Amino acid sequence: MKLALIGDVHLFTLRFHPKRLLSRRVMAHTNLLMNRRHQFNHGLLPELVARVQALKPDMALFSGDVSTSSLEHEFEDFLSAFGPLIDDVPCVLVPGNHDRYTFGSRRVKRIETLLHALMPETFPHLRELQPGWKLLALDSAIPNRVFSRGALGERQFAQAVEAIQAVGHDEALMVLCHYPCALPEGVHHGWSHDMREAGPLQAALAACKGRVVYVHGHIHKPWHAMPGPAGQGPAFECINAGAPCMTSPRWPRGQGFWEIDLPADPRGALVTRHHAPVQGAEGLETLPDGTDPPGGGGDAGHGGWRVGAQP
Fold first, then answer.
1. Which end of the chain has less neighbouring CB within 10 Å, N or C?
2. DSSP class per residue in 78-102
3. Mean pLDDT of 71-79
4. Are 111 and 68 in contact (CB under 8 A)?
């Protein structure tokens, strides 16, 4: 089974709504005016959507933060940008903290209403991906007055632990959540931006009898971290989706997305390919097995795609 993992898109439109700025949203729009609008290039989305479609995934996973301040037009712009993909393949989306940014957006269930076709009706959400593989989707998005913390809540966490404990020795569980619960060695994340149950969830997943692959977003830097020695890094595989539209000298055309091939045997090798757009065709790389990236050509003016097992 082939999956596409897409991270923090952070769609926004600069509009002035005085009444809507009488909330925490004023912080988001201040950051938007001063920083984020210069870092995120949403003009990259048509090329990204076409690239994902060309791979013909069996399912697309969205790790949340598709919006910037949980406004209606941000979710509508997301549906417009990803409409061709949404119409083409099954999609599962978990909300990020920016998708439930204010208490008002939670009260009116804005993301649940506008993105109902992608979001599970209830969490935790458990479904079979293929024989031996299950997906556990978690909702960690809560509004905050100041910080950007996430939380699962007692009921959802307890039910998630039950699902984790039910995984057999010869099975695998992929967990989709906006917040990470474990970080690679050397990566640090502040208390004000983490998930309240990160530690207990990490412990439950480390004790899982089967294989665990944890996929998430929130931190705008893609990685695939493998289990390390005790006390060094996560105890299970972790894949950070990154931010496909966030540009920087390291990522001049955005951070791309992940292609994940699940092995038929849950204990087999997980094949991951990170797709990142590059400025010109001269920047293209071949896959680790020496083959050319699928659809990786393109003229130098439009750019190409760098594909590899690691970003």
1. N
2. HHHHHHHHHHHS-EEE---GGGG-S
3. 95
4. no
Q: What is the enclosing helix (H) or strand (E) of 54?
A: helix 45-55
Ramachandran assignment for 3, one of left (phi > 0), alpha (psi -120 to 50 degrees), beta (any other)? beta
Band (pLDDT 50/70/90 cuts) for residue 293 is: very low
Residue 301, C-beta contacts closer than 8 angstroms, at least 6 positions apart: 280
CA nearest 126: which of 113, 140, 116, 136? 136
Instruction: Name the DSSP class of 155.
Output: H
Would you give the DSSP letter of residue 11?
A: B
Single out the residue of 110, 71, 84, 59 nearest to residue 215, CA to CA: 59
Query: Which domains are seen in the chain, by residue range?
Result: 2-308 (3.60.21.10)
Residue 295 has a CB neighbour count (10 Å cut-off) of 15
- Reference 253, options 241, 238, 243, 268; nearest CA is 243
**H/E element holding 61?**
strand 59-62
Question: How far apart are alpha carbons 237 and 184 in whole angstroms?
Answer: 10
pTM of the model: 0.88
| pLDDT at residue 23, rounded to an integer | 53
Q: How confident is the model at residue 300 (pLDDT cuts 50, 70, 90)?
A: very low
